[in-house]
């Protein structure tokens, strides 16, 4: 693999100061998995540096080594030109590195102030430290626009503000280098905009920022320099202004990728799934889905957009029979479901609803099963796979092998443990299983979460082909691009309710983003 | 990639090498203990190993003990495949003994052995399953943790049996807290009796035909767990409850079925001890086999083949231990229990202690797993 080194050595900043971070020959294996292969990376002081790559390319491993979660097998780390040994997060913090993880590391019942102080209390008694921390938080809020109420409890804060607390934690520990791992996964487009403003403000005051993401658009929007990783190797580093989406995608995947879909006009037919006043209340008494209603027709893709955690998961679970309804009703072809006539997943499936679940690893497959066993999950009672008492192994393995072929699941080995397949291949396996029976309705959650670009392309084409074959598809995704490019109609969910409907062709990111934050209704309330 | 991926080890390392290493570690520590009390550990080990196999009597005793451990090991394994840790094999086997006894006391005046023994076994299984079903129900429908409830049910079973044996079933005038002896028709034939019928001379030992039932149970468990849709459902619930629900499998139903089966398997101990050997209900006839079953299942990796092998190992440990206590007076019965405890500790509780370094060693020699990961 020829590494493309469009060096940044010529840029003035790199000559004037030593690099903020320099990684030399970092190598790391987990058992037999070679996660980082001799990685070199130079991050110029005061720059915003993007690291892009597909899932499993080794980005997070590299940053975990920098932050001391793992120790590299070989290679060295230089911070501000000086070699350092990082054995744990305390060493990283001492070296001026702060990290904002993809999944926040916050104590939910604690307040913002308590979370910021955690691990840096400044003495046995909290009082003196708390006073100093409060003053420091006020300063940071003033300087960088990082406004958060220090006495609010984390659990009560929206995700965007929780993320700010993570950034505050890093700044409170005097970090000069801030690493953010997939920071925008849980944010609305507007919140992403605010985050980028904060990052620019930090950058303007000399904080070096490392942004890890798989979203090409964000890299192009904010970084100065971008590095691309593929299969554990650093394949290119180039100034962002010389990069294009197509070029970066090609570097990430290692071949040309088509980012645009050819989509014909939908020809909607009869209503297959009709939802009326659907309400779901969870075990804690919280209303997760609130009076939702829509019709889904044969031959169309209905997209549901929304920030993660606004009731989409519960809606999917209610539709597929996993979660009981609290009120309202669902009509699936000729099956009526209501709180008085509940239907489990098996019955719903029998009536022609297939479900590709959001949580692939926990719901979609049993990771410890070989592929063929997961392949019959949900259909394990079918006559096709069963004798009178014993299951027909050969029938199951053959069926699995055949569909692995058709859906290009790699490696094509029905005996391999499900957990050993990559995310994209697991997803193809699930999709193959669910599509194989030609369902009348397909309910899909986050079809491409954690899936590599090549597989995304494949999965999207399969969904469109299924639509054209007359299947009614409900698509739930937090990736706005995905919803927009696939859907014929788009509903937006906010706090369990449907707050807007947009025609697929007419949708634009700004309108949807405002709906996702429910800005429209809030503006009305204010007026 | 958010965490270090777990390295998959080949089966021979997982189910072959690791238990052997556990066993060696246990014996090393046991050897130290023996050394401390002034006995040559090599001699002790030799007596113990030899004592388990030196002639047909020793082997018969070893197998007789092993039979119990197969039943309780299978009971633990079936529950384990459903994700349940059934600590209650002891109590389930104990109560099963009551079922067998009641059925036989009621009928041994009227029926021939060919009917009595199966009826006794079925009654034992029903009682064992019933005793397991209460904790199962509490787990499935009330969320009480099965580890806690099955432990408590062992104590309840012990108290119940004391009451039944000393107050209800004790023959008038008998000083022992036990039922009356069964009619000989209800005796499960001994292996030495059968050998005599076939013209072989064998010493009299407690080894009886329940060993065939144990073998049948092993085959049944293997077929049921790995070859039927019900076993599929059980494994799906055990490995990933959410995926099972997604697939339309009811975890509640699976918990009930698996525990029921678990209790019925544990009932085999009643066949071996009550119908096969004592021919009456005795207090504490299970004698810890239920707990040993946990170690047997862990060491046997919850697979019938592994369970048979580790049950024979534990049987040998019991028989060899008895020989050792007999041969070397400074080693008491309690010392033997301590040594057995060490084996249970290393192969049960610490079964996966060695996994990290074995995995690291293995990875150094084998990089083939990369292919699976990268593809």
Quick overview of this protein structure:
The complex is a heterodimer of chains A (527) and B (375). Chain A contains 19 helices and 21 strands. Chain A has helices spanning 12-16, 59-66, 89-94, 112-117, 126-144, 159-172, 189-204, 216-222, 245-253, 312-319, 345-350, 360-364, 371-375, 393-406, 423-435, 453-468, 480-486, 509-516, 519-526; strands at residues 4-5, 21-30, 33-43, 48-53, 74-79, 82-84, 97-100, 177-181, 208-213, 225-230, 233-239, 271-281, 287-297, 301-305, 327-332, 335-337, 353-356, 441-445, 472-476, 489-494, 497-503.
Textual characterization of the structure:
The complex is a heterodimer of chains A (527) and B (375). With 527 residues, chain A is α/β, with parallel strands linked by helices. Chain A has three domains: 4-96 and 177-253, Rossmann fold (3-Layer(aba) Sandwich); 108-175, no CATH class; 271-366 and 439-526, P-loop containing nucleotide triphosphate hydrolases (Rossmann fold, 3-Layer(aba) Sandwich), CATH 3.40.50.300. Chain A has helices spanning 12-16, 59-66, 89-94, 112-117, 126-144, 159-172, 189-204, 216-222, 245-253, 312-319, 345-350, 360-364, 371-375, 393-406, 423-435, 453-468, 480-486, 509-516, 519-526, and strands spanning 4-5, 21-30, 33-43, 48-53, 74-79, 82-84, 97-100, 177-181, 208-213, 225-230, 233-239, 271-281, 287-297, 301-305, 327-332, 335-337, 353-356, 441-445, 472-476, 489-494, 497-503. Chain A has a seven-stranded mixed β-sheet, with helices on both faces. In chain A, strand 8, helix 7 (189-204) and strand 9 (208-213) form a beta-alpha-beta unit. The model of chain A is unreliable at 1-15 (pLDDT under 50). Chain B is mainly α. Chain B has two domains: 1-39 and 330-375, no CATH class; 58-316, ABC transporter involved in vitamin B12 uptake, BtuC (Orthogonal Bundle), CATH 1.10.3470. Chain B contains 17 helices and no strands. Chain B has helices at 11-36, 41-53, 56-81, 89-107, 113-142, 146-168, 191-197, 210-227, 229-239, 241-246, 251-266, 268-278, 289-299, 304-327, 333-349, 355-365, 369-374. In chain B, helix 3 packs across helix 14 (304-327), helix 5 packs across helix 6 and helix 5 runs antiparallel to helix 12 (268-278). The radius of gyration of chain B is 22 Å and the shape is globular. Chains A and B meet through strand 3, helix 11 and helix 12 of A and helix 9, helix 10, helix 16 and helix 17 of B.
